[in-house]
Amino acid sequence: MAKLTMKEIAKLAKVSQSTVSRVINGNEKVNEDAAKRVLKVIEDVGYIPNSAAQTLKRSQSKIIGVCVTETYNPYFVELVDVLESEARKLGYSILLHNSKHNPITEWESIQNFIARQADGVICIPTGEYNLQRMNKLGIPTVIITQNHQSLDSVGLDHMQAGKIAAEKFIHAGHTKFGFIGTALDDKFLGYKSVLYENGFDFDLNNFIRVEEASTNNYLIRQDIESYLKEKKEQLDFTCIFAGNDLVALEFLEMAQERKIRIPEDISLIGFDDTYLSKIMGISSIHQPIEDMVKTTLEVLLNRIENEVSTEKVNIKLDPVLIERTSSNYKKS
Amino acid sequence: MAKLTMKEIAKLAKVSQSTVSRVINGNEKVNEDAAKRVLKVIEDVGYIPNSAAQTLKRSQSKIIGVCVTETYNPYFVELVDVLESEARKLGYSILLHNSKHNPITEWESIQNFIARQADGVICIPTGEYNLQRMNKLGIPTVIITQNHQSLDSVGLDHMQAGKIAAEKFIHAGHTKFGFIGTALDDKFLGYKSVLYENGFDFDLNNFIRVEEASTNNYLIRQDIESYLKEKKEQLDFTCIFAGNDLVALEFLEMAQERKIRIPEDISLIGFDDTYLSKIMGISSIHQPIEDMVKTTLEVLLNRIENEVSTEKVNIKLDPVLIERTSSNYKKS
DNA sequence: CTGTTAGCGCATTCAA
DNA sequence: TTGAATGCGCTAACAG
Predict the structure, then answer these.
(1) Of B45, B73, B116, which to mutate for an interface test with A (greatest number of A Cβ within 10 Å)?
(2) Which residues form the HTH cro/C1-type domain (chains A, B) (predicted)?
(3) Looking at the structure, do residues A151 and A162 belong to the same domain, yes or no?
(4) What is the distance in angstroms between the CA of the first residue and the CA of the last residue of chain A?
(5) What pLDDT score was predicted for residue A1?
(6) Distance A17 CA to D10 C1' (A)
(7) Which bases in strand D are touched by protein, i.e. have an atom under 7 Å from a CB?
(8) What's the pTM value of the predicted model, to 2 decimals?
């Protein structure tokens, strides 16, 4: 099946090539009879318009470039999944890239999106590295799952998530608090602030630091082990909030190996509410993926369609704690 | 940053547009001085060639369309991940679609790939539905993770996987065998055949049927529950091989709830060797993802570059059993 | 309502 | 070595 062009369809249907274009795009009036003929030929030969040509002509590709940082976390997988199906409903295809937390790769991806004339970009940034450049791109871009003032963004209120976790722990009667995650995380800030407001202290010795780059079980485990080694296996907290479910999971496994009971000895709350937490019975803070995706797409399409460069939009969605067994324990 | 074209680069560098094209593509000789100027301008203004135009002109898009059936199974996620990074190394971008096991969606995706002038297609088919049509597409296509004689394919030897599981169980002293998975699965055939060869019978009452469409924990669980109900909660086997890790996981959870000990009461082997099995300690049959992806890409690129329509290639890779605790038990 | 024409941005042939 | 000219497949303005 050699590739057919409109010209050939036109010849077969005995009309001009522009008429074929008209019936395909269906905006202008075409003689009913001619239209039928054209449609039949298209059907018969299985003609599909060349979108490279359309893109060139229309200066519009109907492509959205999506760049994520990893797919190890099931949360991102679901995000991409929803993104793809929602975008498809709106007539867009997804060009998917995975930066693997590498800013250089990220930038290459963005360049690729530009080269391919993507109408818009949705990005989970690797950090601040490329944000400025992205801003000057001249292509609508929205950040998802995070908030950055310099660009349109829709994320979760991470600060609020931390607060919710802290409140839960405080209400359950805990007095010694732990945190496990990356160094710079609004969740930690929110967590800590609620502790202070309630007269508690956060002891930095109870911060188990996980590297940004620790994106798989094994690496996270190493971070935990090295913490334990440093602390001579002594844990001085009765509850802990984890920056994401992967981290929560590894903490849980580590605890089980050491006969630390969850939640009796240590209560645990994770983040993302992926099925990892579901299968392991880990309480977790839920991110509304569908909402987030739909909102993101709305913001993006709005930028694509009305290029009025109004102020940046920064939307923060609300987190919800999903309670499971890992935090189901009240201190006397 | 308005979008720049070659023409404008040419003007800025005081050369003709074709010269700019020459220095970018670098095949033809260009005056060294002029080349330098062009490169500088490109660098300065951040020019990126419009690949829609290139695609149109070259009849080559450097896009590979990838259509998977789901991303719920982490195995597919990893597959896509590796696919993307390997394809990128080879200068290709991935257009990713998710058919969600719907043949209509699948066909739409393929059409989209054609419209976008994809140079090749890699597909995990939803079934036999679109295979014939795909074959007549005139665009190189290879099936991954499955084998179909009518198209190029690279998959695992599922039959062999079933055999390995059966052998393991037989050697461990089992005499009553179970299987959980979809109805038509070569793994089951392999499994059964080894049982027969060794003088055992497979009792179809021990086949827990999971629907093809049961692609998440909840649906799988329903299939299991309805089986248990039918059998009045009586399980007449001491070992079971699961068609994939998700299914194995649900079986495990169901068993735990019912105080059925794994592996003491029932030994379990899963399939795919995803991290689900790793975190749950489920023995599982490993699929060599990297091998599979690289081989697939090799086959595909070979088709793209030399359109010699030789015989179909059907490659079957070897499965390997990764033993964990869920099968670590010898019947006396 | 329809055909002719121009041109999107680029690679490439042909002259110079 | 280089510029001018052509055309990839399509949309859209224009003239009929």
Answers:
(1) B116
(2) 2-48
(3) no
(4) 75
(5) 54
(6) 9
(7) 1-5, 7-13
(8) 0.91
Residue A113 with chain B: CB contacts under 8 Å: none
Alpha-carbon distance of A312 to A307, in angstroms, equals: 12
**SS3 call for B269:** strand
Residues lower than pLDDT 50 in chain B: none
Q: What residue numbers bound the domain in which A310 lies? A: 60-156+288-317
Same domain, A213 and A136: no
Per residue in A162-204, pLDDT tens?
999 999 999 999 999 999 999 889 999 999 999 999 999 999 9
Identify whether residues B96 and B195 lie together within a single domain.
Answer: no
B259 touches strand D (CB under 7 A): no
CB contact under 8 A, B53 and A56: yes
Tokens standing for A238?
A: 């009765």
* Total number of domains constituting chain A: 2
Task: Round to the nearest angstrom and report the end-to-end CA distance of chain B.
Answer: 75
Which CATH number does the domain housing residue A170 bear?
3.40.50.2300
Distance CA A213, CA A225 (A): 16
Q: Is the CB of B205 under 7 A from strand C?
A: no
The model's confidence at residue A3, banded by pLDDT at 50, 70 and 90, is confident
Distance set, CA A71 to CA A75, A121, A194 (Å): 8, 18, 32
Distance from CA of B166 to the nearest CA of A (A): 28
Instruction: From chain B, pick out residues whose CB is under 8 angstroms from the CB of A69.
Output: none
pLDDT digits (tens, 9 = 90+) for A70-96: 998 999 999 999 999 999 999 999 999
